Amino acid sequence: MIGKVLWLGVLSMALAGCTNDQPPPIDQPVAVKTWRISEILSSREASLVGTVDAPRQVNLAFELDGRITALNVVAGSTVSKGTVLARLDSRALQLKVERAKAERRIAELKYERLNNMHAKSMISQAERDEAQIRYQLADIEVADREVELSDATLLAPWDATVIERLADPHHYIKAGQPIITIAPRGAREVVTFIPEKQIAAREFNYWQEAEVVFSHDPQQRWPLTLREYTSKASAVSRAFELRYDLTELPPWPVLPGMSAEIYFPAPKADVNLIEVPSDALLSDIDDRFWVWRIKANRVEKVPVQSHGIKGDLVAVTGELAPGDLLVASGGRGLRTGEQVVALPARQQP
What we know:
The chain is an alpha+beta fold.
């Protein structure tokens, strides 16, 4: 009897060991870069990096095949409307013009002779009319050959700056092959790209007016007016291209490719702003923004509103305060209450 009781006890302990649940998994903390808020700003203007460009750039080309005999411009030079930019070898074309003129003269003399004969009733009206038509066709042929000859000379269509020279003398080119790139003289644009999250964060009118600063004179600002923008974000950068007219040109040369800093007006509302890294700002499908704040090594979601960007920083408002430690990057996969390990914090400048 005693043996049976001991055997049942052992069996019950074994079954109990088999049915115990496994211990819960350890909450592995996630290492994140951080940002420490040090001050609150009353207002701040946004800025973006831009590039100078020339509007209405046009590639000029000949309408004929041929060999270039003259190319009279270099990149960066300015030309006036009607200036000869390049020429093709036109010797064969000139001979065609002379031949067409000779054939026209023959047709003209024949028409005059037959016209006199018709006046004396020596030939029919039909013969006289045929000679007249042949003379007219010969005249048209001369005009066609002269147009072809003129096409061997490339003229500036307006006052322009030469952006790029795409061929050299003695090159054989095909009709329509670009030879020179030009742009209207003096006119300049400044191009920038705005990330989609910043476009969504503000009314679009905010981006209409701006000012630009060039490295040649960082203290001087020049007005910009929005000319056009893409209505679809780039598939690669997820940013929208904005093009601004430089409405007043500086007294020094502003050349395509120069870098620029574009500034947008500070928010007019009397609000206290906090700067956070752009990678710290997260959004959902409804374009509601938030940041992750770290407390006791765990993250909590803090809703914020965006008020523009400056470099890699975004101005926001929300329930934040100096001293708060935020997740600076890598927060997309976090969940509320998740444990993190804070890497050394960047300090708000």
